[in-house]
C-alpha cells in the first residue's frame, strides 16, 4: 500500500508540473542585493536564456554570459536588445571561461554540473581585486535540517507556482533546456571545500532546495551570513 507521504509527494509533483516556475530566477533580485550599485565587467556562468545576464546589465558596463548549450545561447541572444551591453557565448566552464578579470561573477544552478573545487579556483583567478562571486547552487539533502527545509519548501513551492500561474495564463518557459543533474555534494561538503578554495566565503542553506555562496576577492575572515 502506498504511504501517505509518498502520495502527497506524487500530488505535489503533479501540481508543480502543471504550475511550473523558475526556482533560480526567484533568487535573481537577491543576487543584485549582494552587488555594488555599479560595476564594470560581469560574467554569468550557465546563463541559459539570459534573464540574469540582462538584469546584471542594468548595473554593469559589460556582461558576458556563457552556456554549454548552443540552442539556449542562441535564444538568449534573440531575447536581448542590441543596445543591451550583453554578449552570449557557447563555452564550457571552467576551462572555457573568457579571459577576465571580472568585477562580478555569478553562477546559478550550474556548479553541481562542474568539478566543484577546480571551478571555484578558476573563478578566483578570473575575479578582479575587490570583485564579488555569487553562487546559487543545489545540494544533496543529508541532515535533519536539510529535510526540514525540504518539507517546508514543498507546500511553499506549490503555493508560489499557483500564484505565478493564476488567471490561466501560460507560464513563461523556464530558462534552461538541458536535463537537470541531481546534486552530489552535501551542504557540509560544499562549505568545507568552498572555505578551502575561497577563504572568507559566506554560505547559507536556502528554501527551494538551494544554497547561496558569496565571496569577495581579498576576503580573509570566514563569516556566517
Describe the SSE topology.
Elements: H1 4-18, H2 28-33, E1 39-45, H3 51-56, E2 60-67, H4 70-78, E3 86-90, E4 102-108, H5 116-126, E5 127-137, H6 144-165, H7 187-197, E6 202-206, E7 210-216
InterPro entries: SAM-dependent_MTases_sf (IPR029063)
GO molecular function, one term: methyltransferase activity
Keywords: Methyltransferase, S-adenosyl-L-methionine, Transferase
| Strand coverage percent | 15-25%
- What does the overall shape look like? globular
Strand order of the largest sheet: 3-2-1-4-5-7-6
Largest sheet: 7 strands, mixed
User: How far is the first residue's CA from the last residue's CA?
Assistant: 44 Å
Instruction: Supply the CATH superfamily name of the domain at 27-139 and 181-216.
Output: Vaccinia Virus protein VP39
Query: Spans with pLDDT under 50 lasting ≥5 residues?
Result: 14-21, 158-162, 167-178, 220-225
| Cα-atom radius of gyration | 18 Å
What's the multimeric state?
Answer: single chain
CATH topology of the domain at 27-139 and 181-216: Rossmann fold
Enzyme class: transferase
InterPro entries: SAM-dependent_MTases_sf
Keywords: Methyltransferase, S-adenosyl-L-methionine, Transferase
GO molecular function: methyltransferase activity
